[in-house]
UniProtKB/TrEMBL annotation:
Keywords: Hydrolase, Metal-binding, tRNA processing, Zinc. It comes from Diatraea saccharalis. One of its GO terms (molecular function) is metal ion binding. Specifically deaminates adenosine-37 to inosine in tRNA-Ala. The lineage of its organism: Eukaryota, Metazoa, Ecdysozoa, Arthropoda, Hexapoda. GO terms for biological process: tRNA processing. This is tRNA-specific adenosine deaminase 1.
């Protein structure tokens, strides 16, 4: 689906309108900024868009603060919050399909199939941190406040990689916007030279954090992963007939934007590691509509909280601070059930609820007994997803962050 400039701005306005209607908890106050990201559902029959998940935030926790119980969110960047909220929306629609209610899914042969008239669009108020954020400063003057549509071909046509060719290590004769995301400790590091040679291009990076270093890769890396292997992740992939990908990615106005940088980060990290498959190549756009809480000369401090909003029968809104749900007493924080709806624990719980809803589905995936299955064990059973991820990791990214295998919790 190719979007017209009017549709691009209309989509962004829908996202900002949802944000404005949310309670003030978690929103930026005076002199604070945040990032807004949303997933929108497009219906090809009615040609309408609706926001199905929303996230805000720009924070991560350090490696030492990760919880083996799966009850603390490691990464609270808006893009990640919106995507995890989208997973809740997908689980909710799976349950509806099993209960013969209106759903975006059909349940056939023990798998969930997305209806043909449904596709999804991703919006973020700024370029993702990491590789995509490294761009020429001159581009800023060209790309503020106008709709920039993708010159790339549709996904089902051949991609001319000559259009995407970039030098791997250096940008000469101009300055660049920089990212706070750092190269992985075991890989080649940024030169931090003056001007355009400060960063290396095409590198997997971890998000910045004060003091304790994070293990969360940059949003550029995560979005590229979603494009290559699907946004659904390992658990949901076992329930789906095929992976789910975004057809378009839209970035907000009033901020630096470069189609060359976003395509490099998502589709072609270097001359050697090109896009693995052309089946799921999205279109990229920049809107002219500006999110009012972007980082600028006035909004100088990042808001400490994150918001997740999900379109369910009863709209769900939660606020997170340091990966935990805001407003819980210390006693309630002890139980993982009281963690954020998008925590590892609660997403795994939803996965199990779908599995146990239909016996044939449970047996089909050899999850017996499902209640004794740990989170890590369940993910390791996602053979199709893991095989594709290994290919992508080896041929496209070349490396990835290594996290400790600590998530051996079960749902109580």
């Amino acid at each position: 689906m190719s979007l017209k400039s009017g549709h691009v701005d209309e989509i962004v306005e829908k996202c900002i309108d949802i944000f404005k209607k949310l309670p003030k908890n978690g929103k930026p106050i005076e002199k604070e900024w945040t990032v807004l990201s949303c997933v929108l559902q497009y219906d090809r029959i009615t040609t309408t868009f609706e926001v199905v998940s929303l996230g805000t935030g720009s924070k991560c926790i350090g490696a030492t603060k990760m919880s083996s119980a799966g009850d603390i969110l490691n990464d609270s960047h808006a893009e990640v919050i919106a995507r995890r909220g989208f997973l809740v929306y997908l689980y909710d629609n799976m349950m509806k399909a099993l209960e013969k209610k209106e759903s975006i899914f059909l349940f056939e042969n023990n798998k969930f199939k997305l209806k043909d008239n449904v596709e999804f669009v991703f919006y973020s108020s700024q370029m993702p941190c990491g590789d995509a954020a490294i761009m020429r400063k001159e581009i800023d003057e060209e790309c503020l406040g106008q709709v920039i549509t993708s010159s790339k071909r549709q996904a089902n046509t051949d991609i001319s990689y000559s259009e995407l060719d970039v030098k791997k290590h250096k940008l000469d004769n101009y300055d660049i916007y920089r990212t706070g995301a750092k190269c992985l400790p075991h890989s080649e590091q940024d030169t931090k030279s003056a001007g355009a040679n400060y960063h290396l291009l095409g590198k997997v990076r971890t998000k910045p954090g004060r003091g304790d270093r994070t293990l969360s890769v940059s949003c550029s890396d995560k979005i590229a992963r979603w494009i290559h292997v699907g946004v659904q992740g390992a658990l949901l992939d076992m329930l789906l007939l095929k992976s789910i990908c975004f057809s378009s990615l839209i970035f907000g106005g009033g901020v630096p934007y470069s189609e060359e940088s976003i395509m490099r980060a998502c589709l072609k990290r270097s001359l050697e590691n090109s896009f693995v498959t052309s089946n799921n190549v999205p279109l990229f756009y920049q809107a002219s509509v500006v999110f009012p809480h972007i980082k600028n000369d006035t909004n100088i401090r990042p808001a400490p909280g994150s918001i997740v909003w999900i379109k369910l029968d009863q709209m769900l809104t939660e606020v997170a601070v340091q990966g935990k749900k805001l407003g819980l007493t210390k006693k309630k924080q002890i139980s993982p059930d009281n963690s954020l709806c998008i925590s590892k624990y609660n997403l795994f719980k939803k996965f199990q609820q779908v599995l146990m809803k239909i016996e044939a589905l449970e047996k089909n995936m050899e999850f017996m007994p499902v209640k004794t299955l740990t989170y890590s064990e369940a993910k390791q059973k996602s053979k199709r997803y893991l095989e594709q991820w290994e290919i992508v990791k080896d041929t496209f990214f070349k490396t990835w962050t290594i996290k400790p295998n600590i998530w051996n919790f079960v749902i109580k």
